[in-house]
């Protein structure tokens, strides 16, 4: 599978860092200027990254389940982790369309919603039924097909 | 290659599929995380504006209190301030009974609303609920009669209600309702109506903000009268006639009952002061509206003369008689603090106990205070309300404190769920969540986040607009050469300094500022773009306009207080006097002459008096951009 090459680790601009710090603060539910290990992946995603859960666990140093639930990290420790994730290939519109084309049996720009649901719930970092429903709402037409260019635009935007 | 070695093509295909799954899953999870962040921002906006409003009102009250205590104004102004604190209204209960008498009010044949017979029955109250469901209004005679009975009953109750939990009758505990009748109806639908087999505790804040506060009260009081041992009402910080002036309940009552509204409001004022302050289940679970402080003492609370605290916003003066000067004793202040803390406090994550500056009343208390107060009073759990929670409820302080909030869609359609608690003798809370309104169920997560967000940003733009003169002066400090440009970093820190809302400005910037170049923005242009208003009057003085916009709610509160007969009119003299008193509090330089001219121009009827509603309409912010 051709993937983008890993980008060289770029520095974040000071203004960017200030913004990250503000966002980080939004997730601190305890008031100690830290966030839990189990929140780190989501904060990174909120800041525009899209790592796999596995990648984040590795960056956190493969903590135990107990650590994941209880350990906390401050912004200064979080920032280098964010940089590491930023350097990972994120996938573009092009690559994402390409992977979906694999399921496009008829080559007509659609994939079967049902097939997508099965794949997402049984492979990779499995999604729950609730997550899949939330993802697929309004994406399937009356034949149960998903027009994947629109679908990709939908999940890549906010 | 693929033809000769089918295994490779299968493997390749499987790998492709897994990669596909992973990539889509990554994008999906990013999408959800970004929505969550937007939702949190939106929440912060609503909450900080809400609490800033409460703080504002308390500051205003404290200011008048300060004047009362420290300053010997000329007699006319003293009268005005006394007016505000209703010092001179002391009557015997028998005199009040005469005043509130409903008997002379006739129910004519043309009345098509529900009828109530007394003493009220379960059947009667259920029919009343049905009538409210169909948007009918109860006749003023029945309202006064029902309220009169409620007042008489509440006077027999202690400050703290004690309840025993029982196997066959789990107790239902509800939080803030804030005039959301649809939520109360939803709770009754899911859980059943109150009865001797279905005891309920309602934890305050029944009124304000929603448009059916009165119907909620009449319903709750109706059930209270039928089942006085099984329906328990705790007072909330909004069961307070001064707070009601600002947050909509007073307006609702006067709007629905133009002739008898004043009497109804007065009777409600007495009822609110007689509402119990706390409920305790099995001597183990404490239920209060706001919370506690490090000095909370249930024995003291049980002993206070609770009806003295008609409005918790000001320590009570003793009833003065002709011989003695009224004095506030230390005991009074101590009691007042016990009451304020229970009605206004919020939990905080850190240990300790500090004054609640954000709300302006009560404390912020920490987990160590929870442990200590629970231990001291032999309790195991604290249930409180007072703060809106996205899921309708939330645990804190090592699960020793529960916040329960029952008004769904509180900030905006789709903003949050409501919840209630069911509890049996094991004292383990079970939560039932819900969300009223059919429209929001059909929205996707993204649409509902967007909807609420638009509303929050609108509210925030209004706040920015009313502070524009302060903002521009503050920005100019960073723009000595007057180029009209400022860096985004300075914009964020300055805006926070001026507005003091504790919001993530850098995160919000893309939604508030249309364009930046190389980290710089044109702040004059930005202020212009906020384009909130279209002045309805010919007032060239921008500082007057700005002051009016900024203090809109305060002015509304004060005017409604002065307008004792609720006629909707105040005299020029009263307007002028009020302004003179407010001047130093509002820190405004507006001269007496400017105010006199203003009064003249808003005398729409040219009869020497100012119509409050027209005045407020003239200075209400209208979003021009919404019409484009």
UniProtKB/TrEMBL annotation, chain A:
GO terms for cellular component: contractile muscle fiber; myosin II complex. Keywords: Motor protein, Muscle protein, Myosin, Repeat. GO terms for molecular function: calcium ion binding. The keyword Ubl conjugation does not apply. Transmembrane segments: none annotated. Residues 15-50, 91-126 form the EF-hand domain. This is Myosin light chain 3, skeletal muscle isoform-like. It comes from Gymnodraco acuticeps.
TrEMBL record, chain B:
It catalyses: O-phospho-L-seryl-[protein] + H2O = L-seryl-[protein] + phosphate; O-phospho-L-threonyl-[protein] + H2O = L-threonyl-[protein] + phosphate. Its cofactor is Mn(2+). Residues 550-585, 590-625 form the EF-hand domain. It holds the Pfam family PPP5. One of its GO terms (molecular function) is protein serine/threonine phosphatase activity. Belongs to the PPP phosphatase family. This is Serine/threonine-protein phosphatase.
């Amino acid at each position: 599978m051709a993937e983008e090459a890993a980008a060289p680790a770029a520095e974040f601009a000071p203004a960017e860092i200030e913004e990250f710090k503000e966002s980080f603060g939004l997730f601190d539910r305890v008031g100690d200027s830290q966030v839990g290990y189990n929140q780190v992946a989501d904060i990174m995603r909120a800041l525009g990254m899209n790592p796999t859960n596995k990648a984040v666990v590795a960056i956190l140093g493969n903590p135990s389940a107990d650590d994941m639930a209880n350990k906390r990290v401050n912004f200064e420790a979080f920032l280098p982790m964010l940089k590491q994730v930023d350097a990972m290939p994120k996938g573009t519109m092009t690559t994402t369309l390409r992977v979906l084309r694999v399921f496009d049996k008829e080559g007509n720009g659609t994939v079967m919603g049902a097939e997508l649901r099965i794949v997402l719930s049984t492979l990779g970092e499995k999604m729950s039924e609730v997550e899949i429903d939330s993802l697929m709402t309004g994406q399937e037409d009356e034949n149960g097909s998903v027009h994947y260019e629109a679908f990709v635009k939908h999940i890549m935007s906010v | 290659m693929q033809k000769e070695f089918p295994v490779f093509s299968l493997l390749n295909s499987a790998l492709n599929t897994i990669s596909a799954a992973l990539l889509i899953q990554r994008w999906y999870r990013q999408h959800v995380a970004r929505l969550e962040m937007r939702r949190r921002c939106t929440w912060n906006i609503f909450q900080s504006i809400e609490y800033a409003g409460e703080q504002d009102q308390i500051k205003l009250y404290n200011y008048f209190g300060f004047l009362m205590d420290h300053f010997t104004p000329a007699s006319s102004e003293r009268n005005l301030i006394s007016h505000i604190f209703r010092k001179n209204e002391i009557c015997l209960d028998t005199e009040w009974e005469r005043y509130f008498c409903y008997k002379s009010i006739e129910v004519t044949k043309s009345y098509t609303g529900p009828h109530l017979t007394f003493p009220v029955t379960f059947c009667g109250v259920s029919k009343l609920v049905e009538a409210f469901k169909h948007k009918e209004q109860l006749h003023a005679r029945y309202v006064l009669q029902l309220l009169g009975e409620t007042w008489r009953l509440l006077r027999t109750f202690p400050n703290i209600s004690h309840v025993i939990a029982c196997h066959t009758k789990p107790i239902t505990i509800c939080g803030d309702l804030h005039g959301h009748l649809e939520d109360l109806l939803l709770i009754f639908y899911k859980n059943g109506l109150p009865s001797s087999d279905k005891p309920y505790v309602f934890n305050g804040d029944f009124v304000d903000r929603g448009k059916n506060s009165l119907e909620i009260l009449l319903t709750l009081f109706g059930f209270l009268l039928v089942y006085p041992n099984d329906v328990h009402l705790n007072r909330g910080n909004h069961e307070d006639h001064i707070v009601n002036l600002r947050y909509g309940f007073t307006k609702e009552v006067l709007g629905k009952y133009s002739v008898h509204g004043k009497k109804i409001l007065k009777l409600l004022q007495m009822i609110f002061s007689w509402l119990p302050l706390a409920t305790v289940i099995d001597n183990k679970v404490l239920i209060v509206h706001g919370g506690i402080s490090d000095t909370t003492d249930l024995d003291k609370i049980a002993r206070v003369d609770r009806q003295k605290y008609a409005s918790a916003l000001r320590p009570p003066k003793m009833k003065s008689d002709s011989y003695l000067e009224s004095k506030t004793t230390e005991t009074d202040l101590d009691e007042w603090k016990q009451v304020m803390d229970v009605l206004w406090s919020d939990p905080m994550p850190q240990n300790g106990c500090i004054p609640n500056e954000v709300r302006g009343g009560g404390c912020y208390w920490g987990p160590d205070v929870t442990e200590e107060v629970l231990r001291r009073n032999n309790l195991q759990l604290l249930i409180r309300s007072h703060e809106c929670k996205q899921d309708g409820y939330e645990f804190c302080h090592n699960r020793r404190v529960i916040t329960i909030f029952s008004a769904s869609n509180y900030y905006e359609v789709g903003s949050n769920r409501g919840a209630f608690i069911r509890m049996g003798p094991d004292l383990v809370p079970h939560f039932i969540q819900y969300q009223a309104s059919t429209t929001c169920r059909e929205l996707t997560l993204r649409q509902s986040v967007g909807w609420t967000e638009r509303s929050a940003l609108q509210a925030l733009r209004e706040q920015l607009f009313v502070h524009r003169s302060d903002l521009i002066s503050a920005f100019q400090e960073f723009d000595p050469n007057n180029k009209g440009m400022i860096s985004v970093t300075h914009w964020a820190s300055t805006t926070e300094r001026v507005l003091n809302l504790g919001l993530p400005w850098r995160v919000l910037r893309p939604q508030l500022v249309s364009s930046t170049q190389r980290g710089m923005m044109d702040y004059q242009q930005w202020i212009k773009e906020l384009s909130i208003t279209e002045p309805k009057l010919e007032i060239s003085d921008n500082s007057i306009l700005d002051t009016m916009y900024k203090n809109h709610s305060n002015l509304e509160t004060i005017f409604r207080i002065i307008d004792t007969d609720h006629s909707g009119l105040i005299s020029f003299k009263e307007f002028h006097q009020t302004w003179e008193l407010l001047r130093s509090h509002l820190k405004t330089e507006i001269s007496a002459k400017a105010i006199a001219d203003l009064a003249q121009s808003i005398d729409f009827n040219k009869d020497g008096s100012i119509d409050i509603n027209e005045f407020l309409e003239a200075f209400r912010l209208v979003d021009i951009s919404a019409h484009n």
